[in-house]
């Protein structure tokens, strides 16, 4: 489903080069809830952004659904990116737009019809439990509610993969739990493969079936959560 082959990524600024990733090999299978854990600076963000082609590897190959992204033309890349939803630590909602319109963004960009958008957004808001917030603005919502909006928006174009970038790091433990349960439900009901990066062990223990541990641009361990941490 997602395969990273010998990925290297360097950032060059002025005269200094930072090697953020140093030879990453990773395979995420369909249906996995795959966690990547590591300290700040380990390279987690860079790794997940490569899967979405928000970053381009300096070396190596990113393969999604059996196809190497580097071989795609713009149109094919755009189609593949529709298959990948993403949620963020700080939710990344548009403050000037109502909740309905925030969720509708991907559908508007895809030039879907008004009726179709209304139907789909209504379904999505219902699914994340925010039907009554359709006409509210992000500033009127709690952190947990904002992340639910982020999730609804990420699911709008029916992705087969959901990427989560520290998606619960700005939330309290109780809200974190409810978001993790929602991710579990998305994985189980829609068979969406989930990749999560986090520095929080509790997130890995709670919902991941596989985990990779990152340190200084390398994966130092990978396996089931039981194999890596010795606890279910
Ligand atoms: P993590 O998500 O684990 O905190 P990152 O992928 O954000 O790690 O960062 C890995 C390394 O790459 C760090 O040393 C960071 O400073 C560097 N880095 C990340 N993004 C950039 C960038 N856009 N420009 C320069 N250096 C970057
Ligand atoms: P969109 O309009 O769908 O956002 P873009 O063509 O602007 O698509 O590409 C989005 C990202 O993918 C950009 O970071 C771009 O540099 C990168 N990208 C696009 N085409 C390629 C390619 N053939 N190889 C590597 N990276 C690419």
From TrEMBL:
A single Gene Ontology MF term assigned here is: ATP hydrolysis activity
Q: Which residues form the ABC transporter domain?
A: 2-232
Tell me which GO cellular component terms the UniProt record holds.
plasma membrane
Keywords from the named record: Amino-acid transport, ATP-binding, Cell membrane, Membrane, Nucleotide-binding, Translocase, Transport
GO terms for biological process, alphabetical: amino acid transport
Q: Which family does it belong to?
A: Belongs to the ABC transporter superfamily.
Its name, as the record gives it, is: ATP-binding cassette domain-containing protein
What species is given as this protein's source?
A: Niallia alba
The major lineage groups are: Bacteria, Bacillati, Bacillota, Bacilli, Bacillales
According to the record, which residues of the full protein are present here?
1 to 232 of 337
């Amino acid at each position: 489903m997602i395969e990273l082959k010998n990925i290297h990524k360097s950032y060059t600024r002025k005269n200094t080069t930072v090697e953020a990733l140093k030879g990453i090999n990773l395979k995420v299978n369909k249906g996995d809830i795959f966690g990547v854990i590591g300290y700040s600076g380990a390279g987690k963000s860079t790794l997940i952004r490569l899967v979405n082609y928000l970053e381009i590897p300096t070396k190596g190959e990113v393969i999604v659904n059996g196809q190497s992204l580097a071989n795609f033309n713009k149109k094919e890349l755009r189609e593949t990116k529709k298959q990948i939803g993403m949620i963020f630590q700080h939710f990344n909602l548009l403050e000037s737009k109502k909740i309905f319109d925030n969720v509708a963004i991907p559908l508007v960009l895809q030039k879907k019809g008004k009726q179709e958008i209304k139907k789909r957004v209504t379904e999505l808001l219902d699914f994340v439990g925010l039907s009554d917030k359709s006409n509210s603005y992000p500033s009127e919502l709690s952190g947990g509610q904002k992340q639910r909006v982020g999730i609804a928006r990420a699911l709008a174009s029916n992705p087969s993969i959901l990427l989560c970038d520290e998606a619960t790091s700005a939330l309290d433990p109780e809200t974190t739990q409810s978001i993790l349960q929602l991710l579990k439900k998305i994985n189980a009901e829609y068979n969406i493969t989930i990749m999560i990066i986090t520095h929080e062990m509790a997130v890995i223990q709670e919902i991941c079936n596989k985990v990779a541990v990152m340190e200084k641009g390398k994966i130092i361990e990978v396996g089931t959560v039981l194999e890596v941490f010795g606890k279910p």
